[in-house]
Design brief:
- By secondary structure, the protein is mainly alpha-helical.
- It contains 17 helices and no strands.
- The chain has two domains: about 375 residues, Growth Hormone, Chain: A (Up-down Bundle), CATH 1.20.1250.20; about 60 residues.
- Helix content is about 80%, strand content about 0%.
- The radius of gyration is 20 Å and the shape is globular.
- The two termini are about 25 Å apart.
- The model has no long low-confidence stretch (mean pLDDT about 80).
Length: about 450
C-alpha cells in the first residue's frame, strides 16, 4: 500500500503542480488563449484511458500497468519541462494524461484486491485520499517555490524524481496478482476504441462549442457531437454481444450505480474548478505571489484528508452511509458560497476558511464514490466499476475547466471565476439531492 500511495501522490502532483506554474509558463510561451487547453487536454487523455485500463487491470493484474503509468508520467513531465511552445506543452500534458489515466484506473482499485471487506477497505481508501490531498497541497507549494527559485521548467522535475521512489516500492512490495482467465477470453479492442471515440468526441465537441477552436464553425461541433452519440450507441450494442466486454453494462444495472456516476461527474467539475482556477484568481486578480497562491490551496487539499478520515470513522458506525455524501455536498456548497465573497481585500483567514470548507466537503464525497461503486459489483468487475467513477470524475473535470475557461476568456478572471463558483454551488445542490436517493444500507 505504500507503493500504491506513492503512485496516488504522483497523480496529485501531476494534476496540481501545473496550477501555480502555468501562469508564468503561458506568459513566457505567449499562449494565454490556449491556457485552458493545458488542463482540458490533460483531462481529455485521462478520461479516454481510465475505463480501458481499469478493465485490463481486472483481466491481467494491476502491477504491470502501474509500472507503465509511472514511466509515461515521468517521461511526460520531462517533455513538459523541455517545451518551447504552447503546442509542445499541451502535447506533453496530453501524454502525461494517458499515464495518469492508467494510474487512476489501477491505484484506486488496488485496495479492493488486497482488502475484500468494505469496512476494512474504507480505512485504506481514506489513506489514499489523504495521500492524494497532502500531495495536492504540496504540489502547488513545491511548484511555486521551485518556479520562483529556478524557473517554471524546474517544477516539472519533481514528478520524475517521485516516480523513481514509486517504481521501487511497487516492484519490491506490490504482489503480482493474476486474475483467473479462460484461454478464450480476448480483449475487446472494438469496445475500447468506441469508448475512446465516445469520450474524446464528446470533449472535442465541447471545446468547439465553448470557443477554444475559434476558427472552427459551431456546425462542426454539432456534427462531432452526433458522431459521438453514434459511437456511444454502437458501444452499447457491441458490449451486449461480446463475451468479455471492456465495459460490462451490468455495472450500471442498479439505480445506485447510475446515480453515483452522475455524482462523480458533478463532483469532478467542482473539484477542479477550485484547484485549477483559484491559483489563477489569486495571482492575477489578487496579485498574490505563486508561493502564496500555492499556500492558500493547503486548506483546500488539507481539508480532504480531514473529511475523509472523519467519514471513514463514521462509515463503520452508520447504517445509512449515503448520509455522509449528503453532509459532504452541503459542506462543499457552503464553502463555494463563502468563496464567492472573496476579494483582493479579504482577510487571509477568510480565504482559508472558504478553501478549508470546500476541502472538508470533498473529503466526505470522494472516497465514498469509489467505495460505494465497488460495493455494488462482483469482484471481477471492481476495476472497471472504479474506473467508470474515475472516468466520469475526469470527464466532469474537463467540462468544468473548459466552461470556466470560456467564461474567463470572454470576460475576465474575476467574473469568470465568480460564474464558476455560482455554478459550483448549484451543482453541490444537485449532488446533495442525488446522494439522498442512493440507498447503500442494504449493501453493507
Amino acid at each position: 500500500m505504500s507503493g500504491v500511495a506513492a503512485t496516488v501522490a504522483i497523480v496529485a502532483f501531476d494534476a496540481t503542480i501545473v496550477s501555480t506554474v502555468l501562469p508564468k509558463a503561458v506568459q513566457q510561451l505567449d499562449g494565454m488563449s490556449l491556457y485552458a487547453w493545458v488542463g482540458t487536454g490533460y483531462f481529455l487523455a485521462n478520461a479516454m484511458t481510465i475505463m480501458i485500463f481499469g478493465r485490463l487491470g481486472d483481466l491481467h493484474g494491476r502491477k504491470p500497468l502501474m509500472l507503465w503509468s509511472l514511466f509515461i508520467v515521468g517521461l511526460g513531465s520531462i517533455l513538459s519541462a523541455m517545451s518551447q511552445t504552447m503546442a509542445q506543452l499541451i502535447g506533453a500534458r496530453v501524454f502525461q494524461g494517458v499515464g495518469a489515466g492508467i494510474m487512476v484506473a489501477t491505484a484506486f482499485t488496488a485496495p479492493a484486491d488486497l482488502f475484500p471487506e468494505p469496512k476494512q477497505r474504507v480505512r485504506w481508501l481514506v489513506m489514499l485520499s489523504a495521500t492524494f490531498a497532502v500531495a495536492s497541497g504540496l504540489g502547488p507549494i513545491i511548484g511555486g517555490v521551485t518556479e520562483q527559485l529556478l524557473g517554471w521548467r524546474a517544477s516539472f522535475v519533481v514528478i520524475p524524481i517521485t516516480c523513481l521512489v514509486a517504481v521501487y516500492l511497487i516492484m519490491r512490495y506490490f504482489p503480482r496478482l493474476k486474475p483467473e482467465r479462460k484461454p478464450s477470453d480476448r480483449i475487446d479492442w472494438l469496445g475500447a476504441s468506441l469508448i475512446m471515440m465516445t469520450v474524446g468526441l464528446l470533449l472535442l465537441s465541447l471545446e468547439i462549442f465553448v470557443g477554444h477552436f475559434s476558427a472552427v464553425k459551431p456546425a462542426w461541433g454539432l456534427l462531432i457531437f452526433v458522431v459521438c452519440c453514434l459511437a456511444a450507441w454502437s458501444l452499447i450494442k457491441v458490449e451486449q454481444r461480446v463475451t468479455m466486454p471492456i465495459f460490462p453494462l451490468r455495472i450500471l444495472h442498479t439505480q445506485q450505480a447510475r446515480l453515483l456516476n452522475i455524482a462523480a461527474i458533478l463532483c469532478g467539475a467542482v473539484m477542479f474548478i477550485l484547484i485549477f482556477y483559484l491559483p489563477l484568481l489569486f495571482q492575477t486578480a489578487f496579485q498574490y505571489s505563486p508561493t502564496k497562491a500555492g499556500m492558500l490551496l493547503i486548506p483546500l487539499v488539507g481539508g480532504i484528508p480531514f473529511g475523509s478520515i472523519l467519514s471513514g470513522q463514521l462509515f463503520a458506525k452508520t447504517k445509512h452511509p449515503q448520509r455522509l455524501m449528503v453532509f459532504g455536498s452541503t459542506l462543499l456548497g457552503f464553502g463555494c458560497l463563502v468563496a464567492l465573497t472573496l476579494t483582493e481585500h479579504s482577510a487571509l483567514l477568510w480565504v482559508v476558511a472558504a478553501t478549508a470548507l470546500c476541502g472538508a466537503g470533498l473529503g466526505f464525497v470522494l472516497p465514498n464514490l469509489t467505495l460505494f461503486s465497488q460495493m455494488l459489483v462482483k469482484r471481477q468487475d471492481v476495476g472497471v466499476a472504479s474506473a467508470l467513477i474515475q472516468t466520469n470524475r475526469a470527464l466532469g473535470s474537463a467540462i468544468g475547466t473548459a466552461l470556466v475557461g470560456m467564461a474567463i476568456t470572454q470576460t475576465s478572471v474575476v467574473i469568470g471565476m465568480r460564474v464558476g463558483l455560482i455554478v459550483s454551488v448549484v451543482i453541490c445542490g444537485f449532488i446533495m439531492i442525488i446522494s439522498l436517493r442512493i440507498k447503500m444500507g442494504d449493501f453493507i
